[in-house]
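On clarity, I found the account of how folds are encoded harder to follow than it need be. Since the whole study asks how a given chain folds, the encoding of that fold should be made plain. For the editor and my fellow referees, an illustration may be useful. An entry of this sort, consisting of the sequence and the corresponding backbone structure tokens, reads as follows:

:::
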Amino acid sequence: MTHILVTGGAGYIGSHACKSLRDAGYTPVTFDNLSTGWEDAVKFGPFEKGDLLDRARLDTVFAQYRPTAVMHFAALSQVGESMAKPGLYWRNNVAGSLTLIEAAIAAGCLDFVFSSTCATYGDQDNVVLDEDCAQHPINAYGASKRAIEDMLRDFEASNGLRHVIFRYFNVAGADPDAEVGEFHQPETHLIPLVLDAVAGRRDALTIHGTDYDTPDGTCIRDYVHVMDLVEAHVLGLERLRNGGESRVYNLGTGTGFSVREVIDHAARITNRPVPVTEGPRRPGDCTRLVSGSIRASAELGWSPDRSTMDQMVRDAWRWHQTGQYEK
């Protein structure tokens, strides 16, 4: 068996990645402390509970499974929380990643796929962001991810750790088979919040900021279907396994949707009204983030075919209706 260590494999994106890895012939080994993930999402390979700051636990897992690569998703990722508690993000995301990288190198596991973020670019309005754009994060979450990117480059120079870095835009949707889906505690992502409001699980959706310099006053984001996203990770892994050089890729569609546009799509797909209230802006939120992802298409052969707003909402709604996350 070809084992791949998947940190954060009990979380939203990590669990979908485990399914794609399984389908591609790999055995994903989930390493997760369950602080934000949930064990019921681990369905496609073995589970090892542990924390990235626990080097001894990591060494044990590397020795047991001898993974050929690491796919690193584990991180805290709430922008608002990172603004209020930056130390938490530097300790968990950066120190945890350093411990993981050193353990991987010690085990001779030198292929590394990293889950980064478009938040490393900061607030660059009216710019289609490609991989060569300057990185000026405006919150501790984005800053912590940029620091890990720098760390990977340093360890490639010193130890030959080859890597593929993916900078995501907004990830949405769910496994079309509804085996796994999106679930956070607390939930902060727009589409599941909209669907919770539609289903009556919350009184209303709060729109955070209606005075942005956009056509309808709400933030604009580039959304990519989670299954398209994890397909790119498998392609990136195979690039490394075939001897490809380290590379950075954006993952998005190049099309932005405002908060109000997402709400309108959800109302139409579910055929239900979306109750909303309006609130102030959240600290650290950018006005507009839209991706240029030509490099991923050209070099990996990646195509985000499921990443239409209707498809993302439809797949997310199917998952929500299963009620699995209410167990």
About this structure: The two ends are 32 Å apart (CA to CA). The chain has a mean pLDDT of 93. The chain has ten helices and 14 strands. The first helix runs from residue 12 to 23.
